[in-house]
Design brief:
The complex is a heterodimer of chains A (about 100) and B (about 150). Chain A contains no helices and seven strands. By secondary structure, chain A is an all-beta fold. Chain B has about 150 residues and is of the alpha+beta class. Chain B has two domains: about 1-30; about 35-150, SoxY domain (Immunoglobulin-like), CATH 2.60.40.2470. In chain B, about 25% of the residues lie in helices and about 40% in strands. Chain B contains four helices and nine strands. Chain B has helices at about 1-20, 25-30, 35-40, 45-50, and strands at about 55-60, 60-65, 70, 75-80, 85-95, 100-105, 110-120, 125-135, 135-150. In chain B, strands 1, 3, 5, 6, 8 and 9 form a six-stranded mixed sheet that branches. Chain B has a three-stranded antiparallel sheet with strand order 2-4-7, with no helix packed on it. Chain B is globular, with a radius of gyration of 20 Å. The termini of chain B are far apart. Classes of the chains: A mainly beta (about 100), B alpha+beta (about 150). The interface of A and B includes residues 48, 62, 63, 66 and 72 of A.
Chain lengths: ~100, ~150
């Protein structure tokens, strides 16, 4: 995949960093059927999202299939501008991606 | 020779135990995906699987921001924040989904009790948010009316 699957925006305000992230992923539940063939489309979804702040974990999420397609995620932690924020996701087929950015 | 092996083995296991107790191991790499909890068909077993108990205390210190009426159940924006101190995890469930457990966010270090995401909802039901604070579980719920379901199709 040439294109990055993650977009992050992290902004610091009064010592609190707000991270907003968009991941492009189809989040297939495994319950839908293909309209043409009638076969069940296999589940394909992100099961874990990790976030590190300056190398130390601040959040790790366990996700089920009920997170919407192209997931949006936002969370906050105490930090300052210039800090490093790294987001990593892993899906049920073993694929993963990560992106590191600086807090604005 | 045997004695040497013995020493080596005890040292190795000792180091692992030390790493585990001092929290050096990153949980994500140790814990596999919680299949049991995410596959649970009812709220009680989903709660039991994810947080280890089905008993929570209703709290007004948890705020769930979600629409009263969601037109599209496939994308329901949900924001959960809490005034409780030292929140360790936030768990989101949708009562009438085929599998109620949606997500669990483990918060560490400097993280604040705030999480926002978008979820899928099968039909009109309560969204339940559970916050873990000081070894206790607090919950809040909010009803979201869904006009078009977002599960299956």
């Amino acid at each position: 995949m040439a294109k990055k699957s993650i977009k992050i925006r992290a902004k610091a305000k009064n010592g609190v960093v707000t991270v907003k992230a968009l991941i492009s992923h189809k989040m297939e539940t495994g319950l839908r059927k293909d309209k043409k063939t009638g076969k069940v489309i296999p589940a394909h979804f992100i099961e874990a999202v990790d976030c590190d702040h300056n190398g130390a974990p601040v959040m790790n999420a366990e996700w089920g299939v009920a997170i919407s397609k192209n997931p949006y995620l936002s969370f906050k932690f105490a930090g300052a501008s210039g800090d490093a924020v790294k987001l990593t996701w892993k899906d049920n087929t073993g694929k993963s991606d990560s992106l590191e950015t600086k807090v604005k | 020779m045997q004695r040497r092996h013995f020493l080596k083995n005890t040292m190795a296991t000792g180091a692992v135990a030390l790493a585990a107790t001092s929290g050096l191991l990153v949980p994500l790499k140790v814990l596999a995906w919680n299949k049991e909890a995410f596959d649970a068909k009812d709220v009680q077993s989903a709660m039991k699987g994810s947080i280890g108990t089905e008993l929570t205390e209703a709290s007004d210190k948890i705020t769930i921001k979600a629409p009263d009426i969601a037109e599209n159940g496939a994308v329901v924006p949900v924001t959960i924040s809490s005034a409780l101190s030292g929140v360790k995890s936030i768990t989101i469930l949708s009562e009438k989904n085929g599998t109620p457990l949606i997500a669990k966010f483990n918060l560490k270090g400097k993280a604040e009790a705030f999480v926002s995401t978008r979820i899928k909802m099968g039909k009109t039901s309560n969204v339940i948010a559970i916050c873990e604070s000081g070894g206790k579980f607090y919950s809040a719920r909010k009803e979201v009316k869904v006009t078009i379901g977002g599960c299956g199709g």
